[in-house]
Amino acid sequence: MPPQQPLEPPTADQRLIWDIYFSAHVMPLIAECDELGVFTLIAETPLAASRAAERLGITVEWAEILLGALASVKLMRVQDGLFHITDATRCYLLPTSPYYAGFTLRRFAGRNIYERLKAAVDGARTTPPAKAAPVEADAGSSIYVVREWSEAELNVERVQTGVRTMHGLSFAAAVGMARSVDFSGVQRLLDVAGGAGGFSIALAQRYPELRCTVLELAAVCQLTQGYIARYGVETQVDTLALNMFFEPWPEGYDAVFFSCVLHDWDLEHRTELIQRAYAALPAGGRIFIHEMLLTDAGDGPLAPALYSLSMRIGTLGKQFTASELRTALESAGFGQVTVTNTFGDFSVVSGQKI
Ligand SMILES: C[S@@+](CC[C@H](N)C(=O)[O-])C[C@H]1O[C@@H](n2cnc3c(N)ncnc32)[C@H](O)[C@@H]1O
To answer: Which one of 68, 87, 106 terminates a domain?
Structure first.
């Protein structure tokens, strides 16, 4: 072979690729540290890695590696040789916090997302792959991903896990939303597919005159009642066991609320849900849709874009842009559509029945 020109180094920084390469380790790291009690330990008192190692019963090198990796993702900070928890850790990774997400992260840390992604993409090919991979429908499905809702498939353990998983991520957004959207004109709100009831609970705490009903599958309602009681809002929030597709919706509500519900479904089901909301509301009634929104340009942000991917792997749905939701509402007959950013990447798109 003739001698070649020496290579120029790449023009793009390779750190992006290293960060992506190692991103697969982040959730397992946090899940294991949650299991080991690392966050609770360091919350009690800031510790050097050697002292943390003693308390956790692991080697000093392991403590240094784990705590250092946590610090790199801003879940610990180091000051004068001691590891401290950060505010994010205090909010989301202490089991005593109402916004504890450790259970949710642990549940997803073990999932083989690559296998599920491949199966989902193969199932969606417009031209069949040379050797069609078997599509494992809804592998690892939770209560959120049953395509044709068969309540018979829901056993107690599955419902408990599913409800706790969702609540672990959505309650913080619920409390944030209740502070940033004006519900003062609403008297009775129907929280369709409200899960653990976190949004109704947060709204009830914020608006003492408001009455909310969490419409859910019967198996879920039993658990929702426990969450409602935990926050002492039983006089303001009740539950209604109902299949939102197959049974008529109740009347007497001046607002319908959906949080992370439309993103589970394909266009046909989403349209049906919005039409059902329109039919159930009186003239002047309001609809509120709480979702993580994608940019109109289709370039992120990171969490909504990956949420969309995750939804498509596990359900029929995806995330939306504000324009898509505006069009969906206006097509159903709603007017005065507004978009309000609420908490993190979440927004509420609302409209009024004309
Ligand atoms: C992604 S979760 C959203 C829960 C809640 N709104 C939140 O944001 O935390 C979707 C919810 O839809 C409920 N669901 C699914 N199919 C349903 C149906 N046919 N009728 C009523 N609820 C249903 C599930 O039980 C689940 O709690």
So the answer is: 106
Contact 201, 174 (CB under 8 A): yes
Q: Which of 216, 222, 240 to mutate to test the pocket of ligand 1 (most atoms within 8 A of CB)?
A: 216
* CA of residue 89 to ligand 1 center, whole Å: 28
Domain boundaries, position 30: 15-106
Domain total in the chain: 2
Together in a domain, 210 and 304: yes
Task: Please answer whether residues 255 and 280 qualify as being in contact, where contact means their C-beta atoms are separated by less than 8 angstroms.
Answer: no
Write down the residue that tokens 């289709």 correspond to.
298
| Tens-digit pLDDT profile for residues 35-77 | 999 999 999 999 999 999 999 999 999 999 999 999 999 999 9
Locate tokens 């049906």: which residue? 272
Same domain, 317 and 197: yes
Q: What is the pLDDT of residues 224-245, one digit of tens each?
A: 999 999 999 999 999 999 999 9
What residues does ligand 1 touch, defined as CB less than 6 Å away? 143-144, 149, 166, 170, 193-195, 198, 216-217, 220, 243-245, 259-261, 264
Q: How far does the centroid of ligand 1 lie from the alpha carbon of residue 129, in Å?
A: 34
Q: For residue 332, is pLDDT > 60?
A: yes
- Residue 175 and residue 86 share a domain: no
Query: Distance (Å, rounded) from C-alpha 346 to C-alpha 350?
Result: 13
Q: Which atom of ligand 1 is closest in space to residue 246's alpha carbon?
A: 19
Among protein residues, the one with the nearest Cα to ligand 1's atom 4 is 195
CATH of the domain at 197: 3.40.50.150
Contact partners, residue 25, CB within 8 Å, separation at least 6: 69
Residue 152's pLDDT band, with cuts at 50, 70 and 90, is low
